[in-house]
Amino acid sequence: MTSFLQIADDEKGHELDLFCVPRHYENDLDRVIIPHGLIMDRTERLARDIIRDMGGHHIVALCVLKGGYKFFADLLDYIKALNQNSDKSVPLTVDFIRVKSYCNDKSTNNVKVIGGDELSSLAGKNVLIVEDIVETGRTMQTLLSLLNECNPKMVKVASLLVKRTPRSSGYRPDYIGFEVPDAFLVGYALDYNEYFRDLSHICILNEQAREKYRV
Ligand code: IMP
Ligand code: MG
């Protein structure tokens, strides 16, 4: 069983005023649900778990842009720290793809993969897919079926967040930072129509902001 830190449905989070939040977002957010420091502490432990399971062989870390970029960068920093401070180490290379499936606050059925090296270069490699959040699981299932056609040696998925939602297909990543309530979350590179990536903490968007930034 994959372990994760559970954020309960009735989790009240923390008042915005207790943290540093950009002025331009002050009226758009209700509460801080996961402070940046807690994200970092949990990510450090995920790095250790990943190296324990995948550390025998060259790892290709595949970042799912744009939402995954913060988690990817911080997770890889922790993996690098393990690599340079222990007797055993593994080469780590990186690649970046874009997957787009969202419009406003709704997941759509149409999942598009854009960019990245030829997927055929993943043959025989240990691939670690790094994603921000799994909601229905459709994005990840689509990506996994594409990757598996390239015959990698191993594919694991690390997602910072997994949403508890009746819309879930049942798909669960191999490594999960936090399991979160069925709300729309922003910050730490998670966006709402491209806004809020420039916010360090993970917060719940308020109703007013959903309208303000709607496209
Ligand atoms: P899925 O295909 O439904 O699992 O959706 C996954 C993608 O939807 C993620 O990679 C995110 O880009 C986006 N997403 C889902 N929930 C949220 C959220 O609460 N905030 C921001 N993006 C989200
Ligand atoms: Mg994403």
UniProtKB/TrEMBL annotation:
GO terms for molecular function: hypoxanthine phosphoribosyltransferase activity; magnesium ion binding; nucleotide binding. Residues 38-192 form the Phosphoribosyltransferase domain. Pathway: Purine metabolism; IMP biosynthesis via salvage pathway; IMP from hypoxanthine: step 1/1. Its cofactor is Mg(2+). It catalyses: GMP + diphosphate = guanine + 5-phospho-alpha-D-ribose 1-diphosphate; IMP + diphosphate = hypoxanthine + 5-phospho-alpha-D-ribose 1-diphosphate. It is found in: Cytoplasm. Gene3D superfamilies: 3.40.50.2020. Its main location: cytoplasm. Its EC number is 2.4.2.8. The keyword Nucleus does not apply. SUPFAM superfamilies: PRTase-like. GO terms for biological process: GMP salvage; guanine salvage; hypoxanthine metabolic process; IMP salvage; purine ribonucleoside salvage. One of its GO terms (cellular component) is cytosol. Keywords: Cytoplasm, Glycosyltransferase, Magnesium, Metal-binding, Nucleotide-binding, Purine salvage, Transferase. Belongs to the purine/pyrimidine phosphoribosyltransferase family. Homotetramer. Converts guanine to guanosine monophosphate, and hypoxanthine to inosine monophosphate. Transfers the 5-phosphoribosyl group from 5-phosphoribosylpyrophosphate onto the purine. Plays a central role in the generation of purine nucleotides through the purine salvage pathway. This is Hypoxanthine phosphoribosyltransferase. It comes from Knipowitschia caucasica.
